[in-house]
Amino acid sequence: MIRLITATALLALAAPAFAQTAPAAGTAADGSAPVQRIRNVQLKAGEPCPKGAADEIVVCGTLEEPYRIPKTLRETKPSAATQSWVNRAATIDEVGRVAGGLPDTCSSVGTGGQTGCNQRLIREYTAEKLEERRKATTVP
Fold first, then answer.
1. Rounded to whole angstroms, how far apart are CA atoms 97 and 112?
2. Taking 60 as the threshold, does the pLDDT of residue 35 lie above it?
3. Cα separation of 73 and 113, whole Å?
């Protein structure tokens, strides 16, 4: 009895989905003719989007900086070759301290490793805020 009620309820919930109609795949939104071509156009600022033919959809996008490498492909993190020797030495020193479980390293290894977790969080927060301030004051 409970199964019959559950099955009836599930069928009643799915009924509105069967009543909806959608255009066939590859047809225009108004259902007039199938779409033969989809064209993607990148425009400079201020240019109008071109009109498509009857069997064509035109997708327009604007270029923010047309003569630069796209932001997704730019290298955001500095590589070892672009860092100073002081930064590289500090990184090597920190890696060695964490691996050895020395105090103030926020490492799970060693007796004094846990004392550096708060200091690390403060250093990361300060560096993040300095970077945000630098980006805010830098003119693109």
1. 11
2. yes
3. 38
